[in-house]
Specification:
It contains 26 helices and five strands. It is mainly alpha-helical.
């Protein structure tokens, strides 16, 4: 998966899930490379691919630049906070009411500009670029109709602060891992952002109260988890705060004066008091254990909007729920065959999978050495997959990946595994995070499939195309992530390595792959169950444990994630299903001319599209193969 946000704005306000960001349009890229008047003037000219519509290229370049200016964190994540965009390196997004209004104006202006381009004159990939931009700006306009939480071009989240969203949870890791400090200017930009952390926390606190007045209150268990994480953060002595140690360590390496006292003063006098105020506001909420969106004002319509934005389809909750049950049972039958071949015949498939999950033979010890062993296993899987990539793709991407543990200070609310794309300047590889809070989250037979999903040929591979081809990828594909495509591709990537024989001599590894597929099918069941069918959190947990055999702890973390980010988990299997549907169609039409690499590369080269645009992508691939 992708982290749902590094900042809410990076996810929703203008751009996309942080990990789905990888490059800005060529014009914006060029603008960061020089500050001379001539270079700056030339940088505004869109570099259109041969045969592309220059008016569309210009419009998309303009839109992309405007969106980037509204999300400074995205500019940093992209490596685009230099040159003419250098001022963005010292800013955080404006989440005030005025800032939100400006976001809406920016999106509406972008929509009007795009509407000036006649779609019927476009050809080839330009149709995808246009349709993708129109879809994203349209979903942003729909989200504006719900005056709570955060929403934008990639959908919405209902709660301003939760166990996985909020400045308390994201700012320190963002500044430590992604904000570059390469000189004194970078240090000053760090402090500029550090001084904005407390006002951003205060603005969130204001919005928590405002939303509560509208009946938008997170469930008690979400609130408790959030407060627990905040208490842990608040208990860290100021001098040991990551806000302080990060900049102190980097300044020392650069030979700059020790900034510890300056950072300490900001944390002690501003950030911690702002965090105290936010904790007080969350404690004052009158919560209950109702998990679903149905409890919110106009909740059914809101959940349907979330499903639409996250699956990029018009499927109803009932249709998605039924699809989940059907595919769950089909995958269960495949798992049963493997389990029986291993002599495991007693109990349901879920019960037998649970026994394997709990089997100490497959679980590393709860120690630093055990966690290091899990990370090493993930790296070995990446190394084992690399030689296979030539049979999966013709693109020859480098797709460098770094494997890291989810930081301890955010692991309680973080997903079980996620990946952030590489920066376009080549200074930071893709980062694949795995949550090692509890070792029974990851029995060894589950790690290969997870790694194929998050790293190669999954998220890191798709993101590498964006990072390694910034001059030819369409602007809106570079700035907007479509959850169903991105997660559907990663789930499909798990299937690709299975088809290539990764598990030929590893039946339990293949069981892990199938269980991961089943897990995504069950997500369709429990997400819609809670948010549309009034299931309790306990029922959702019990159903997922029974069907997948995963540990209660890992499942509880997942279910709580679906409560904080409704609909997002439905994008995986819905996207995968559509990719398989289009692959089968292409194979039928092309017959012996069909090469799965052509199909795979056609998808990756789009940078990501809504599922409604996928048939057109495949049509053009078919036409190209036919000649």
């Amino acid at each position: 998966m992708f982290p749902l946000s590094m900042t809410r704005r990076a996810l929703l306000g203008n751009t996309a899930a942080v990990s789905a960001l990888a490059a800005v349009p060529a014009a914006a890229l060029a603008a960061t490379e020089s500050t001379t008047p001539r270079a700056a003037a030339e940088s505004t000219k869109p570099r259109a691919a041969a045969g592309s519509d220059t008016a569309l290229a210009a419009a998309l370049a303009t839109i992309a630049d405007r969106l980037l200016q509204r999300s400074p964190e995205s500019a940093t994540l992209l490596g685009m906070d230099t040159g003419r965009n250098a001022a963005l390196a010292g800013k955080l997004s404006d989440i005030s009411a005025a800032g939100e209004a400006e976001d809406r104006r920016t999106q509406a202006t972008a929509k009007r500009l795009l509407d000036t381009i006649p779609r019927d004159r476009l050809q080839g990939a330009d149709i995808n670029n246009y349709d993708s931009a129109q879809w994203a700006l349209g979903i942003a306009a729909e989200g504006a109709g719900f005056d709570f939480g955060f929403s934008g071009t990639s959908g919405g989240i209902p709660y301003v602060v939760s166990q996985q969203n909020g400045t308390y949870q994201q700012a320190a890791e963002f500044l430590d891992t992604y904000h570059r400090v390469e000189d004194a200017a970078g240090l000053e930009a760090y402090f500029s952002r550090l001084e904005q952390v407390a006002p951003t926390l205060a603005e969130e606190t204001r919005r928590i109260a405002a939303d509560a007045g509208k009946g938008i209150i997170p469930p008690a268990f979400i609130n408790a988890n959030t407060l627990g994480q905040q208490a842990q953060l608040r208990a860290v002595p100021v001098a040991d705060s990551k806000f302080v140690t990060s900049i102190a360590n980097r300044a020392k390496k650069l030979g700059l004066p020790d900034p510890s006292a300056r950072a300490t003063a900001i944390v002690e006098k501003a950030i911690y008091p702002a965090l105290d105020a936010q904790m007080a506001a969350l404690k004052a909420l009158k919560t209950n254990d109702d998990a679903g969106m149905w409890k919110l004002p106009n909740g059914d319509a809101y959940y349907q909007y979330l499903l639409k934005s996250q699956t990029t389809t018009s499927l109803s909750a009932a249709e998605i729920h039924q699809t989940g049950w059907e595919q769950n049972r089909a995958i269960e039958a495949e798992m049963d065959k493997i389990l029986r071949a291993q002599g495991l015949t007693q109990g349901s498939v879920g019960e037998r999978a649970a026994a394997l999950t709990a089997d100490k033979r497959f679980v590393q010890p709860d120690s630093d050495a055990g966690r290091a062993a899990v990370l090493a296993t993930c790296q070995k899987v990446i190394d084992d997959i690399r030689p296979r990539l030539g049979r999966i793709s013709k693109l020859g991407l480098k797709a460098e990946v770094q494997v890291k543990r989810v930081p301890v200070d955010i692991q309680d609310g973080a997903g079980l595994g996620y990946m952030n794309f590489a920066s376009t300047d080549g200074k930071r590889p893709a980062i694949y995070y795995i949550n090692l809070k509890q070792m029974d989250y990851w029995p060894s037979w589950t790690l290969a499939s997870l790694t194929a999903h998050e790293a190669i040929p999954g998220h890191a591979w798709q993101g590498a195309y964006l990072a390694e081809h910034p001059d030819i990828v369409s602007p809106m594909a570079q700035l907007i992530g479509f959850n169903a495509f991105v997660e559907g591709w990663a789930l499909y990537a798990e299937q690709l390595v299975d088809e290539d024989g990764l598990y030929a001599d590893d039946p339990l590894g293949r069981l892990g792959y199938l269980n991961a597929q089943r897990f995504r099918a069950v997500r369709l069941i429990v997400d819609t169950g809670m948010h549309a069918m009034k299931w309790s959190r306990d029922k959702a947990i019990a159903t997922m444990v029974a069907e997948t055999g995963r540990s209660v702890g890992s499942v509880t973390s997942e279910i709580d994630r679906y409560c904080a980010s409704p609909g997002q988990a439905c994008g995986y299997k819905i996207g995968h299903n559509e990719i398989l549907k289009q692959r089968a169609r292409a194979a039928t039409v092309l017959g012996p001319k069909f090469d799965v690499r052509d199909f795979n590369d056609a998808l990756v080269a789009t940078g990501g599209v809504p599922l409604s645009a996928l048939p057109g992508v495949v049509d053009r691939m078919i036409a190209a193969v036919k000649g």
